[in-house]
TrEMBL record, chain A:
Cofactor annotation remark: Binds 2 heme groups non-covalently.
Binding, a ubiquinone: 220
Protein name: Cytochrome b
Family the entry assigns: Belongs to the cytochrome b family.
Membrane topology: Multi-pass membrane protein
Length: 429, 194
């Protein structure tokens, strides 16, 4: 669907006409990311991050497919194939490997900004709940894929990461241990584990790509949101996606690539962990096990539970960690405020920034050794994380008096340019 | 009873006034039967897929390990492996046994005595998996000079679980004692685990 004023695909080239009448794929692309998709005219740079996530996924799939050609998926050969084969023997292997490893960080970084963009501008609200739900699903799939990919180099962090993460499932009463052994294909991570993780790590990105298509499809039913949160009222509120936002996104992709290249060429191991350059040793745990930075907030929530209360602390930690993400599925119904954008919600805006700070502190705690001070800080920040979604947001949506909304996107745009008087005079004239 | 010979379609019957009535039962029966067969078929296909992810025969074949205890002095422990998992074998000193027996069992998170965790007449041989019951790290304490934690047994560096000289959880997040695998003594100095 689209707005009635959306441009129609009219191929002039006879070959394209022939294709379009038999398989309207060019028309589909034109309506999705071409001139056939009208978009609010006032999107800011935070609206770049969806496309950036898509670019990151493509980078990961392309480098991943090539790296898979050089990877030995066995406990005996994986570490050497990555750290010797790819890094020294394979032509440009070091580049592909570092691109893939840092690409995961870039992917998660833009996904986090994309999610917080959605939280700030209320993009999860009706009529875009389905876009949000699919987005949370994509986030879960990305996390699973990133975790399984991190296991493949079979270093110490890979191995112990696999051991700890699959250990979560042993917290489930009665069947937990059986599930853990089933997931690993043995009693500890080994060949069977490595091979199934490789298989799934190769599969899941394509599942993600599929859910992304649904995500964009669901988005295109109501059309994109915008920084005012006011719905499109007419043709003057929109511009065609191409060339306006292809150009704006193109600029964003350029900045993204500069940062990405800086990481790859100057700090390729900055986000990694030195212990992962030690081959997996099932008999020795590294002194400080820590996941990749993008899992730190969740790891902090996991470790925040230290006392048994009805059920064991271990099960609480696991439930809370998964709950912290599953909670996001309910957000569209927890926040009942009819106003979308935090720009017009003074109280929600404060709560949003406190949440950002809270997640950053959680991340810091998750990356640190679990000293008593860190544990207490993670307990407080973890509690606040849940309170934000379950208590603060629902209460704010009842109490808050939003600021007056602009009548239309166009009015807001012109007001920002100092053009509001012009419209007034235009009206009075 | 209407039959095909009467010219009545099989999913209909004749009402009291001679009119044709829908008879849903036959059609429903066919639907249920078809869907049931398909469901059983789908289940039968899923079963081998799921089961293939269980430990394979070669992994299960590693499930018994023979250990020679003769070189382990009292107070010493060794780290070996059983089913690719670390296994701790520890020769407890009389002082360590006394310390373990001294603890009131009811005060423990996972109440067990040292006797229940060892073989009769061999209470000095504590054989446990070296897998922390919290999230599966290898606790310290079996190797020479490693930190044995506040209770003199094992100490897990990942999240600070401390085990006592009977391998029982005393402090930290782990929910249960270190697991004691099935084993038996085949002679005074040889034990077969698994």
């Amino acid at each position: 669907m689209s707005f009635p004023w959306a441009k129609q695909y009219e191929p002039k080239n006879p070959v394209m006409q022939w294709v379009d009448s038999r398989l309207p794929l060019p028309r589909f692309v034109y309506n999705a990311v071409g001139a056939g998709y009208p978009v609010p005219r006032n999107l800011n740079y935070f609206w770049n991050f969806g496309i950036l996530a898509g670019v990151a996924l493509v980078v990961q799939i392309v480098t991943g497919i090539v790296l898979a050609m050089h990877f030995h998926s066995s406990a005996a050969g994986a570490f050497e194939s990555v750290n010797v084969g790819m890094m020294r023997d394979v032509n440009a292997g070091w580049f592909l490997r570092f691109t893939h490893a840092n690409g995961a960080s870039m992917f998660l970084a833009v996904v986090y900004i994309h999610i917080f963009r959605g939280l700030y501008y209320g993009s999860y609200k009706a009529p875009r709940e389905m876009v949000w739900l699919l987005g949370v699903l994509i986030f879960l799939l990305i996390m699973a894929t990133a975790f399984m990919g991190y296991v493949l180099p079979w270093g110490q962090m890979s191995f112990w990461g696999a051991q700890v993460i699959t250990g979560f499932f042993s917290a489930i009463p009665v069947v937990g241990e059986w599930i853990r052994v089933w997931l690993l294909g043995g009693y500890a991570p080994d060949d069977a584990t490595l091979n199934r993780f490789f298989s799934l790590h190769y599969l899941l990105p394509f599942v993600i790509a599929g859910v992304i298509i649904l995500h964009i499809w669901a988005l295109h039913i109501p059309g994109s949101s915008n920084p005012t949160g006011v719905e499109v009222k007419g043709e003057q509120d929109t511009v065609p996606f191409h060339p306006y936002y292809t150009a704006k996104d193109g600029f964003g992709v350029g900045v993204f690539m500069i940062i990405f290249a800086t990481l790859i060429f100057f700090f390729p191991d900055y986000l990694g962990h030195p212990d992962n350059y030690v081959v997996a040793n099932p008999l020795s745990t590294p002194a400080h096990i820590v996941p990749e930075w993008y899992f730190w907030p969740f790891y902090a929530i996991l470790r925040a539970f230290t006392a048994d209360f009805i059920i064991p602390a271990k099960l609480w930690g696991v439930l809370a960690m998964f709950g912290s993400i599953l909670l996001l599925f309910f957000l569209p119904w927890l926040d009942k405020s009819p106003v979308r954008s935090a720009n017009f919600r003074p109280m929600y805006r404060i709560a949003f920034w406190v949440l950002v700070l809270d997640v950053l502190v959680l991340g810091y705690c998750g990356g640190s050794t679990a000293t008593p001070g860190v544990v207490i800080t993670s307990q407080i920040t973890a509690a606040y994380y849940f309170a934000h979604f379950l208590i603060i947001v629902p209460i704010i949506s009842r109490l808050e008096t939003p600021k007056p909304l602009p009548n239309s996107i166009t009015e807001a745009v012109l007001a920002n340019k100092g053009g509001s008087r012009m419209t007034e005079t235009a009206v009075s004239a | 009873m209407a039959t095909l010979e009467d010219g009545v379609p099989p999913d209909q019957t004749v009402g009291p006034g001679g009119e044709l009535l829908e008879n849903p039962r036959r059609r429903d029966y066919l639907t249920y039967a078809a869907v049931s067969v398909a469901a059983v078929g789908a289940g039968v296909v899923v079963l081998p897929l799921v089961n293939s992810m269980n430990p394979s025969a070669d992994v299960l074949a590693q499930s018994s390990t023979e250990i020679d205890l003769s070189a382990i002095e009292p107070g010493q422990a060794i780290k070996t492996s059983f089913r690719k998992q670390p296994l701790f074998v520890r020769n407890l000193t009389p002082a360590e046994i006394a310390e373990a027996d001294k603890v009131p069992v009811s005060s423990l998170r996972d109440p067990q005595t040292l006797e229940q965790r060892t073989k009769e007449g061999k209470t000095n041989w504590l054989i446990t998996l070296g897998v922390c019951t919290h999230l599966g790290c290898v606790p310290l304490g079996a190797g020479e000079g490693e930190n044995r934690g506040p209770f003199g047994g094992y100490f897990c560096p990942c999240h600070g679980s401390a085990y006592d000289t009977a391998g029982r959880i005393r402090q930290g997040p782990a929910p249960t004692n270190l697991q004691v695998p099935e084993y038996e003594f085949t002679s005074d100095t040889v034990v077969v685990v698994g």
